[in-house]
């Protein structure tokens, strides 16, 4: 199965970083394409996008200053199918992408994505203020996973993403 291409560029406000693409995303070649994934609804309801986008429009979000990548590029059924070797390789590739493109914010879509990259045992929701960033000058924001399997109430998830929306509005994005 094909890897889902990154959508990265210089000068981005936010790069959203997932664990890896779902099998559905791998089939169609777009990020967060599983119909049970709430990513696109969360972005819209949190005020990060002016309208509800669809997965097939993921490349269009570059115009809004948003990019997409994953810590592991290979599509899988779930994160349990990702090997330790893939995480090790992915961690180095992701760090290099962040160093190259230097977005204002790296938004980790799930605590586990952040703890894998940063090699930390835990993280709080939101901006990681009390830790040294993995890449100097790139603010780190940890948001809940958008998977339909997440048990957190949707309004709570949206509230966390809204903090990121408020931050970008304050920055004049």
UniProtKB/TrEMBL annotation:
Gene3D superfamilies: Uracil-DNA glycosylase-like domain. One of its GO terms (biological process) is base-excision repair, AP site formation. CDD domains: UDG-F2_TDG_MUG (cd10028). Keywords: DNA damage, DNA repair, Hydrolase. One of its GO terms (molecular function) is uracil DNA N-glycosylase activity. It holds the Pfam family UDG. Residues 6-153 form the Uracil-DNA glycosylase-like domain. This is Mismatch-specific DNA-glycosylase.
């Amino acid at each position: 199965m094909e890897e889902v291409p990154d959508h990265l560029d210089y000068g981005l406000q936010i790069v959203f970083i997932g664990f890896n693409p779902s099998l559905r995303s791998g089939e169609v070649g777009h990020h967060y394409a599983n119909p049970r994934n709430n990513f696109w609804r969360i972005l819209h309801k949190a005020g990060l996008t002016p309208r509800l986008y669809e997965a097939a429009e993921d490349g269009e979000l570059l115009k809004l200053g948003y990019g997409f990548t994953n810590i592991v590029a290979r599509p899988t059924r779930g994160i349990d199918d990702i090997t330790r070797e893939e995480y090790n390789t992915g961690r180095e590739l992701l760090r290099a992408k962040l160093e190259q493109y230097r977005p204002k914010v790296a938004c980790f879509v799930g605590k586990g994505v952040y703890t894998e990259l940063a090699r930390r045992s835990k993280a709080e929701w939101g901006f990681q203020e009390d830790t040294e960033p993995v890449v100097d000058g790139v603010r780190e924001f940890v948001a809940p996973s958008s998977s339909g399997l997440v048990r957190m109430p949707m309004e709570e998830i949206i509230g966390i993403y809204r903090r990121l929306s408020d931050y970008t509005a304050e920055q004049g994005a």
